[in-house]
Amino acid sequence: MAELMTPARYEAFVRDGIRQGYRSEWHPGDHKPFLGGEGFLDGLVKEKKETSSHRPVAMEALCKQVAKAAGFTIEALRGHGRSALLVAARHRFIRQAVLEEGYGATKVAQFLRCHASNVSRVLQEAASDT
Q: Which of the two residues, 38 and 52, has the higher pLDDT score?
């Protein structure tokens, strides 16, 4: 390690290692390098399989479902109406789309034709309620 005492020598050492690329003999097992044991890696793979099997409901279908349950049209939910029942239905749609179906707040905001901060506010209110 004495040969790596200067920053220039260390930088050259790293650059040389990058040129060599991935070498399987340095990483036993079937997988590319991970920090953690085989059990950790198996857990990651299993968790990924479980989460990737869920396909979100189409945003339009979810909106239609929430709007119908509340007695509104999709366009009313996507509009700028401020009645208490309409706002509650819109908030329900936002929470379901983001928290249950996994859509991003920005995508939901684009769908509703509103600013992303409006969606974030609804989600913050939902988080503070729990």
A: 38
